[in-house]
UniProtKB/TrEMBL annotation, chains A, B:
<dbReference type="InterPro" id="IPR047662">
    <property type="entry name" value="SemiSWEET"/>
</dbReference>
<feature type="transmembrane region" description="Helical">
    <location>
        <begin position="62"/>
        <end position="81"/>
    </location>
</feature>
<dbReference type="Pfam" id="PF04193">
    <property type="entry name" value="PQ-loop"/>
</dbReference>
<dbReference type="GO" id="GO:0016020">
    <property type="term" value="C:membrane"/>
</dbReference>
<feature type="transmembrane region" description="Helical">
    <location>
        <begin position="36"/>
        <end position="56"/>
    </location>
</feature>
<protein>
    <submittedName>
        <fullName>SemiSWEET transporter</fullName>
    </submittedName>
</protein>
<keyword id="KW-0812">Transmembrane</keyword>
<keyword id="KW-0472">Membrane</keyword>
<dbReference type="InterPro" id="IPR006603">
    <property type="entry name" value="PQ-loop_rpt"/>
</dbReference>
<keyword id="KW-1133">Transmembrane helix</keyword>
<dbReference type="GO" id="GO:0051119">
    <property type="term" value="F:sugar transmembrane transporter activity"/>
</dbReference>
Length: 86, 86
């Protein structure tokens, strides 16, 4: 595997998996006061568009990576929305 | 401009700019207790690798988008590191 695709795959892995520790922290603490609602609304929407882009261009890495990020960031957004409503 | 590049550009815009409201919230509150340090360490590292990837492949959109994200997420990480040390 070329350096180029190693770099791209590792960058994608880090930016995807990075939302896992925040999701775990949010699930445990159930406290989202310092998390920005506009951030997660925009980010989750953007990730959803990346999934659509990946499907339109038949690019599995973009589809899979962004589905994982969508789920993790979506969990955080759900807790934030619940917090805002209560 | 084709639907395809509109979708990709808009997705990139949302996932990039989404860190602006979190950076503003963090600068104002100076409180990062609920933000995950491992998330921002991994995410900022991943975005840095995307910048290297963009340079290696001469892709300006990837370079510019990720430089903006690197600055915004880097600000949040700096506040988190300061909080952790104090």
């Amino acid at each position: 595997m070329e350096l180029n695709s190693i770099l791209g795959n590792f960058a994608a892995f880090l930016t995807t998996v990075s939302f896992l520790p925040q999701a775990i922290k949010t699930i445990k603490s159930k406290n989202t006061k310092q998390l920005s609602l506009p951030m997660y609304l925009m980010f989750v929407s953007g990730v959803f568009l990346w999934i659509c882009y990946g499907i339109m261009n038949n690019q599995m890495p973009i589809i899979i990576g962004n589905i994982i990020t969508f789920i993790l960031a979506g969990i955080i957004l759900a807790y934030k929305l619940k917090d805002v409503k209560s």
